[in-house]
Every structure is written in C-alpha cells, then in structure tokens.
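#struct-pred

JT: dropping the chains for the assembly here, can someone run the whole complex?
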Amino acid sequence: MISKLVKEFQKREVESTTRRHFIRDCVSGMGTAAFGAMMLSSCGSSSSGSPQLSARDLNPLAPQSPHFAPKAKRVIYLHMAGAPSQLELFDYKPELQKLHNQPCPESFLEGKKFAFIRGVPNMLGPQANFKQRGESGAWVSDNLPHFAGLADEVSFLKAVHTEQFNHGPAQLFMHTGNARLGRPSVGSWVTYGLGSENNNLPGFVVLTSGGKTPDAGKSVWGSGFLPSVYQGVQCRSKGDPVLYIQDPKGMDRSLKANVIEAINDVNQQEFMEYGDPEILARINQYEMAYRMQIEVPEVMNIDDEPKYIHELYGTEPGRESFANNCLLARKLVEKGVRFVQLYDWGWDSHGTGQSTAIDYGFRNKCREMDRPMSALLLDLKQRGLLEETLVVWGGEFGRTPMQENREGKKMAFLGRDHHTEAFTMWMAGGGIAKGVSHGQTDEVGYAGVEGRTSVHDIHATILHVLGYDHERFTYNFQGRPFRLTDVGGNVIKKILA
Amino acid sequence: MFDLELFVGRFHPLMVHLPIGFVVMAVLFKALDIRSSTRTYRPALKVSLLLSAIVGIVTCLTGLLLARSGTYPADQLFWHKWTGISLAVLTVFWYLVEFRWSVRPTVSYSFTALTLVLLILTGHRGGVLTHGASYLWEGLPVTWQQFFGHDPYEAEKLEFEISNLDSALVYEDIVVPILEARCYSCHSDRKQKSELRLDSPEMIQKGGASGDPLIRSDLDKSKLYHVLTLPLNEDEHMPPKGKAQLSKYEVKVIEAWIAQGGEVEKMVMHYPDRSALEEWYDDLMADQKLFSNELIPSQPVSQPDPTLIENLRSQGVLVQSVGKSSHYLEVSFMNVPNLEPELIKEAAKIKEQVIWLDVSGKNLSDQHLNELINFTRTTDLNLSRSKLPGNSLKKLSQLKNIQILNLTGAELYGSALEDLRGWPELRKVFIYLTGIPSESVERFLETNPGIMIDTGGYRLPSVPRDTMVFRFKG
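RK: done, full complex below.
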C-alpha cells in the first residue's frame, strides 16, 4: 500500500518537473502568445506553482450580482425530450385539416432534408380539437384541458426555429447554444453567473422522469469549459435522491466531517503544488456533499406534502415521474435553488408504434404532463414564487405538418417527423408578460412567417430576465471570450412584462 | 469654379507627415549629439531642425486653409490648431536656441523635450479630428478601453418625448431624434462629410455633394432611403459599417416619412398608413420597459460600506447588490438557521440600500420586528413560512415602500389583514396557508380594490382526460 503511494508521489513529481522545465524553456518563445493571453485578460489556468486565486476561485458558488437588476432570480426549465407536436398542442391550423391526406406541395420539400420523411409525404391534419382560451384567446388544444385554463398566465412563442433535426444535436443546441459537445449548458451559465443562494443545496439541479435520458446524454446539463462545479447535479426522484446521501450505519456525522476535512487538507496541498483549478472544484464538491446531507433528504422528500398538494400535482410518492419532479422543482426553488432542469421523455411521436402515435401515445403523454405542469404554475403562483421564477417549456424542435412516411412507405400509425422550421415554446413567471402569443406560422404551420425566434433568442431572453446582457456575459476559453448565445440572439422584447 | 483655398488646404493631411518625421529625426539627432563627445551629429541636427521649422510653417498654413472650409467642429479644432501653431513656433525657437543664440545646455534640452511632447499632442488631436475620439482605442480589449474612459457599448442615446403617438409630429418628434443619434455626428454642424447636413429640413432637401435628391416620394429615387437600405457591406450603406445602425423599425419610420415627401408639419394621425409608425412605437415601448423595474427606487443611493457587507457575509447573511450597475442591495437570511435580532440590527446599518429582504422561514419575535422596521426602503419583503407575533403587521406598516409582501404559510393572527390598510405602495400580498378567513379578505378588498391578494388554494378539478388512456383497438 505504502509503496504504491510512494510510487504515485514520485510519478507526480516527475510529471511536474518535466512540465516546469518545458514551460521554462518555452518562456521566451511563448512571449507573444502570453502577451496575447494577457491582452484578453484571460484568467484561465496558471501554470506556475503559485496560482493567483480570486475569492471566486475559492468559493465558486458564492452568489453574484448580474449586470442589472433582474426580474427573475430562479429558473425552472421543463424540457420535453423527443419534441412534442406543436400542431396538436398550440399551433392551430384549420387549413392543414383541409389538406389532410393530400400530397405535400413540392415547395415544402425542395432542397429540404428530413430525418425520416422520404419522397412526397401526405399532409396530416391536426389530430386534436382546438379552442381559444382565456382573455388572451391563445389557442390550446383539448389535449391539455388543465393547462388551457392557464393560457393567460404564460406567453407563447409560436415560431421558434432551430438548426438541428436530430435529437442529440438539437438537444445540445437547445441547452448549450451549440450543436456540438463542449459548451456549458444554460443552467451552468446561470449558476456560473449568479452563484447559488442556499449553502446546503446545489445551484443547478437536474431531475429526469425516469425511462430514457436525453439522447444528447448528460452533456445537456454539463458545464462544458466552465469549471465543473457549475454542472447540473442530477437528483433521483426515487430512492435516495443522491446516491449514498445517508451516512452508513454505525458512522456518525462528526466522523464523516473529519474524513472530509482530512481529504480536503490533502487536496488543498495538492492544489498549492499543482494549481489545477479542478482540485478546487473537487474540494468544493466534497464540502457541498457534506452540507447537502442536511437539507437534501428533506427537500427531496414529498411524502410529507399534504394530500391536496398530491391531488393538485397528481403525484405518487416513491415513483419516478414528471409529476413528482414538478413538485420537487417547486420545493427546490422555494429553498433558493437557482436552476431546476426537468427532462421528460417519450415525445418522439413518429407513429412507428402505438406509443409514438399522435392519436395514442402522444395523447397519453399529454395526460401525464398536463396536470403536473399546470399544478406547478399554480403552486408557484399561490406562493408568490412565480413573481421571481422563470418557467420555460419546450422541446428540442417541432414536428412536421406532413405525416411521416418512413422509407417512403405508409405507416401503421399517425406520426410526424422532426421539424426545425417552426415550433412552439412558452415562458411564464418573473419578467414575462401574461397572455402574449408572439410569432405566427404559415397556413399549414410549416414555417414561421412573423415573429420568428431562434434558440439564441430564447437564451438571450432567459439571461435578460435574470439580469444578464447576453452579449457581455462571457467566459474566456482557448484565447477568446465565449457566449451562451455565440454571435447571435436578440432578447424577445414582445414577451417581456 | 476654382477654389484655391480648398485645393491647397486639402494638402494638409499629406503635409502633416513631413514635420512629424523631421521633428522625430531632430530629436533623435539631438539625443545622439548629447551622447557623443565629438560634434559629428551637429550638421545633421541642423538640417533636420531647419526642415522641421520650414515644413512646420507650411503645414500650419495649409491647415489654416483647410480649417476655413468649415467641415470640422470648432471646439475639437481649437486644440489641434493651437498645439500645431505652437509646435511650428517652438521648432523655430529650438533652432535659434541651438544654433544662433548661446544658452545653457539645459535650455536646449527642455526645448527638445517640449517639442516632442507637443508633436505627440498635435498629432493625436489631429487624429481625433479626422477619425473620431475612440479611433485609437477601438482595437484594445474592452476592459482597457473602459480604463481609458471609452465605453464601446455606449451608443448615442435615442431619446423621444412622445406622450401620445397620434399627435406626435413625425418629423420633429420621431425623425429628428433618430437622425440626431445616428447621423448628426457626421452630417450636421459637427462635421459635414460629403458636404451633407441633416440638421434642418432645408439642408436635408438641399442634399450633399452628389446632388442626388435625398427625399422623393418615389422611394426608388430617394437617396436617403437608398443608402439606409443598402446591404451593410456596401460602401455607400449608411451609417457606415462599425457605427451604430438604425433598427429595422427606425428605417421603416424614415421610409414612411420619405414616402410622404419629407414634409415637416404632419402628425402621425395624418398619415394614411400608420403601420410603420405604430410598429416602431411598440418596439420603443418594449425597449423602455426592458430595464424598468418597479421594485428599484428611481432615486440613486450612495455606495454601501463594503466592510459592513463583508461582516454580514461572514455571518452567513446573503448580501448582494441587485445588479452590478446599482448600489441597492438584496439581503437574505436563508443561510442563517437561528436568526438573532442582533444580526438584523447589524444588517440595518445598510438599511438605506436594502430594497429586497428575505426573512422567510424564521421564528420571529417582537425583538426581531423592532429591528426589521428599520428597513424603510424595502420594496419586496418575504416573510413566508415565518412565525409572526401578534400585531406584527401593524409594526411593519412603518415600511412605507413595500410593494410586494409574501406571507405564504406564515403563522399570523386573525386580524392581520386589517393592519395592511394604509400601506401606501402595497400592490401584491400572498396569504396562502395563513388561515386568514375569506370574509376578512373580502372586507379588505372592498376598501383596497387596487391591491392584489392571492389567497391561493388552487385546485385542478378532475376532468375525463385525467384518467382516459388511449389504446389502439384494432
């Protein structure tokens, strides 16, 4: 055992010496490069033995002020992985009904690529009944009977568009602003920008409804090039919310405190020697894990919620479900968690089978979503939390007004293919107007014709209500500043309160 | 027509580089001369100084001619003109000091230094004149630019004074402010690029050097519309690439105004098609509310004492300015499990700045409340899930600025709502789970109809779809 440790120590020492030699030898040649980095005032990693540390490095989750006073302090983001059909929920197209089962006009297909549609598909009329709801007269279908009553609380974006027509890249794009791996998720950016309020809870919590995790994997809540303390902490809604959160039998908390203290001392020494900021992240995560033991079991426990709350959300304690996660999301923001990301799954309604049929599985998914998400809005509202919490709902893209004809054949069930050019999302809560429908699609809902909004626009808007100017909110990486919105994005002014 | 003055004057930008070169050369030779024990460099110094003086005077003359053309703003011109003239005079005197008069060496040293300083100043002022004040900084990193007092994010502010869109004068109230913010810096009394001024209706009608009409109700023949709508990359596009651009709504407004012949009397309501003006106005309103926040007092406040903030933070209190651009603070005791009245007292030292206050989930006594009533600027007070003693809201009524009061789940007394009467700014109160009876809410709302009271307790009644499972029966 000891010899192993000595060996590792020697190995590390050799590594560090060679690195230092290399750096020393290169100093003259790298002068210009170093100057370039200085010009960009890049904070990045310093390669010398005595790292320059800011207060932020030592306490990376300390709360910070945004650029200007925010309208919302927290975010709940409901992502429907697989992409629900806007044409059966919010985008009412009577013209499409008239074209039902007729061949798609060539003009829609020319030069276009679809994930599965081949040749000339038929148009598929709306498979739901629509009504205008509330005073705002927003269109909501009968697939969402509960949510329909809340149409005046939210603002709809009816002409969102994206660049990606496959789930993985589109989910990455929707959550990190880039279709390829490596960028921080919106939750990480927000936690990096604002820090975390509650000492005993992570700033960025992720809850999945069970079943499939998003196609893009955990990168959709990853921290990318930001320090890893800002990545989303996935909590389970069934069993222990965080694995090994309870102390093992026969081991009390003070013993655990000693263990963590000792480990952190060693890490601290290691850090002083090597200056790797990831060691700091590790130290912080040990400390956070320890503190989480106090509050996480309580906040993640929905057993003690009163009966009327369970009835409101349709929750069943002990299950992994979207409903339970909605209730948890409310409890988490109430305790000051900055960003709660919910992932639901099963919305990929291609019509390949019953569960993905637009008139069967899709409707069942709507039932599972409708009550919990409506309850979440109402519960936030009655507690005054909706005043300062932004709620965002959407998928990674939309669905085609054409019926899917996988491999050019007629399919057993009704379904729609992935569609990038127009879909609906909604936002509600802090800083968002009530009852606005922004944007419009053409007669069949194929493309946005007015008030089109991009994924970057959505990110810019989220950052705006949190008090950040998305163009000035940057992180220096690989010699240049990076933004969540890359080089695009406009705040969607029409839906601001 | 042969404008000799202008012709000669236009050689100034060419000439200026000569004295710059010669003066620098003279300074160099002077430096070499000081170091050298022989008099090797004296002849070279003499020639370069003589040349500096001569071309300096010629440059001044051309400069004065160019200035007479009147294209440069007087206040900016002043410094360049007088530093330039002084420089020419100074080089003449330096020459005399060096080769004609016998003076102590220190005198010639100071002439050398002074000439160099003046050269740099003159050159810089001239650069500012032709290229604009920020020309030198624009390539620097943003933080450095801000250090030099230039904020690249700060565009010229657009300010409109419109109380009612219908009766706004299209030219005076809408078009002028747009032109002022986006065009006047180059086309007004400040500068007249292409001999164009846009700061009066007559001058707009007159147009610029090309002689093309700026305004024609036929948009295709209107130069102003043409340059505004060219693609950004075209050389003729205005404002030039890199300068703040007109928004698409502003371009539409100018378009509508041009289509009306660019006249100056009409109000918005006289326009046959007002859609462009209305869209522009909607966008303007949206812009105005972009950063407005009712919960932030409009009057500024002094900076809070950072040591007090540090002290509170070390005791677990969250203290944060609401935004980096504001001194107002939000304070939360979320991370303080056992809140002592002393800690609130300590926080009250920064009460002038605290506007958002979170005291949720605490067991509060009268002692706590006696300290809380000091936070008179607070606009948003969160007491949710807290235990409040009797009459506490009566006490808190001293907090005259509260707009939002969150009492969700607070343990309250029955007559609590009565104590909320007469809170001048109160807009929203959340009383879910407080047990306040609905009759008392109704009574309160009768006399305070403007206040929104959320009693909560929402239900989602069962509907058939809640249990309907869709299954294929085929």
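JT: nice. Chain A has two domains: 72-241+304-495, 242-299. The longest helix of chain A spans residues 2-26.
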